[in-house]
Amino acid sequence: MRKAPTEAERRLWSALRSHRLAGWKFKRQEQIGDYIVDFICFKSRLIVEADGSQHAESAADQARDDWLSAQGFRVLRFWNNDILNNTDGVAEAVLAALEIPLPNPSPVKGEGLDFSSSLAGEEGARARQRVGRRGGE
């Protein structure tokens, strides 16, 4: 963990901490796997990162984001200068992301629900055929 936050991180933390953003709870400098994220809301599985110029087109950041996404997290990145010049706008963007419902995880293969039996006639037959094919994959 870093010892001292940047000015952009301090400003963003001021907007996120203590349930200030519509009651959402954020933590800062949390370890997720091998990574330390700037800010995280576990309930919404949203990670917010404050990036300096060293992060421009970083392959390491892309690999990190890909891994975090595979773990079910959404990652929002903001440039430090955007945070410093428009903290309220950044907070609004974070709030908008928080209000997007989490996607339901896909059912494990073979454990999905079959609603085809409630469909009548040809439509039900087609649905049962599709469900049957998926189950046999």
Q: Characteristics of this structure?
A:
alpha+beta, 137 residues, 4-stranded mixed beta sheet, 5 helices, 2 domains, 4 strands, Endonuclease, Chain A, disordered C terminus
CATH class of the largest domain: Alpha Beta
Strand order of the largest sheet: 1-2-3-4
Radius of gyration: 21 Å
Through-space gap between termini? 46 Å
Question: What best-fitting shape do the alpha-carbon axes yield?
Answer: globular
Q: Within the CATH hierarchy, at the fold level, what is the topology of the largest domain?
A: Endonuclease, Chain A
What is the CATH architecture descriptor of the largest domain?
A: 3-Layer(aba) Sandwich
- The helix tally amounts to 5
Describe this protein's structure:
- The protein is α+β, with helices and mostly antiparallel strands and 137 residues long.
- It folds into two domains: 7-98, Endonuclease, Chain A, CATH 3.40.960.10; 106-137.
- It is 40% helix and 18% strand.
- It is built from five helices and four strands.
- It has helices spanning 7-16, 59-70, 80-85, 87-98, 121-135, and strands at residues 27-32, 35-41, 46-51, 74-79.
- The model is unreliable at 111-121 and 123-137 (pLDDT under 50).
